[in-house]
Amino acid sequence: MVMEIVCPAGTPAALRAAVKAGAHTIYCGFADETNARNFPGLNFDRAEMREGIAFAHGHGSKVLIAINTFPRAGDEAIWHRAVADAASSGADAVILADPGLLAYAARNHPELRRHLSVQAAAANADMINFYAETFGVKRVVLPRVLSVPEIAAINVETEVETEVFVFGGLCVMAEGRCSLSSYATGRSPNMNGVCSPASHVEYYDDNGILDARLGGYTIHRVGKEEAAPYPTLCKGCFSAGDATGHLFEDPVSLNAEQLIPQLQKAGVTALKIEGRQRSRSYVAQVVRNFRAAVDALEAGQPMPEGMLARLSEGQAMTTGAYKKTWR
Amino acid sequence: MTQSSKPIPKVPPLIARALRVMPLAPLSMSLTAYSKRVATHHPSLFRRLGEHDHARFVLDPTDLPFAIELEPNGGVPRIKVVRGQGAGDARIAGPIAALLGLVHGAFDGDALFFSRDLLIEGDTSAALALRNAVDDAELDLSEEITQLTGPLAKPLQRAFAFLERRTGVYLTRPEEAEAW
Ligand code: SF4
User: Which residue from A22, A40, A197 is facing B129, i.e. has the nearest CB?
Assistant: First the structure.
């Protein structure tokens, strides 16, 4: 079976671009704190979501709605409403992370397919099977910390479909467990749906020397000819003692395109592209590239050479943890 | 829609110098009228700006001798063309070809930022909101002009297409091919 391309859409225009470019499935979120890409100018209101789903279904594509932040005590109704609205809009599944919200969805909308978000950081078969038995989860998005043999080991022990990230910004820690951003900004992915929020990001250009700051701290400084990075703490450039360097990860972006045959052998069902905050141009190019790759694989042809470096952070790419090496 | 690996074209310095003598007041007035027309066709653009719909954006084509101060003003936009860098809450600067390619959805804003073709300064949140709102609006700035020209529309479209081919600058919204 052709591996499923799961593509991001931050706006209705990006959703249409993804569908036209050949995405099997599109994931998106409501324009509020219920999803982990709560960025200015992004996401869908209720009417846009209904129209987007109708457009995708009309072209044979599916739509998944990410409701993958953790409900705030006393405000659970906001998240419950999001699940109910996803069900009534005709979404093909919801992507959830919070066990309480999973229980709510399973109880009140049993017919609505449930996927486990990467935010839940389920990284072993026991945990995944627990979510399947308890909440009827049908698919898990695996955190970007696993190697290909580890993914294969998981698939041997679970019936739950696995979805893995193959392209885009790299969150190097088990998502849902990282609070680095809150040290500099007071806001983090789990609570507010943003890592390194734009409201705390500033760039200063001094004759071509670009400073990228987060919450007032300089995270990077690059020269005239160097590629610019986002100021995310995990990819920051730090000085300790005499050494200066990228402590956790270089400002690179994930591209596991050439690993697709191995991921298929490891039993992976779906390939996920990161980037709901990116443009419709990005979406169309990346989808076309990956759709060509999975179709080539299906036809028994070699993987096409990708052309995606320009779209990548730092204009450099890595296979991330899939081929694990340590500094 | 492609982010080509070719460098972004820049306005030749000779032309840029010639534009220095251009009177800016009539240009500001016609751009304001034009942006009001675009606004009536794309109301969702202002909704997407959210809390930033009264911010002042500076769009600075770095290869031209002026900058554009844009105030969305809650759906009744105002544009002022100024000499120098302009002043506002957020500044988006790059060659005019990069800015037009971005508006027309031919380029990805982050990719232009990584390659240093685009610079964002000031209120990053406001700049992102504008970028995302414009990307969703699927604008075609040439189309907005040709719609006004009645029988001249066809020759004007051809002229834009010719200019686009000659200069490599996206003056219209590129067609999205149905790949599958
Ligand atoms: S700081 Fe890095 S690892 Fe942590 S959530 Fe942000 S992107 Fe992920």
Answer: A40
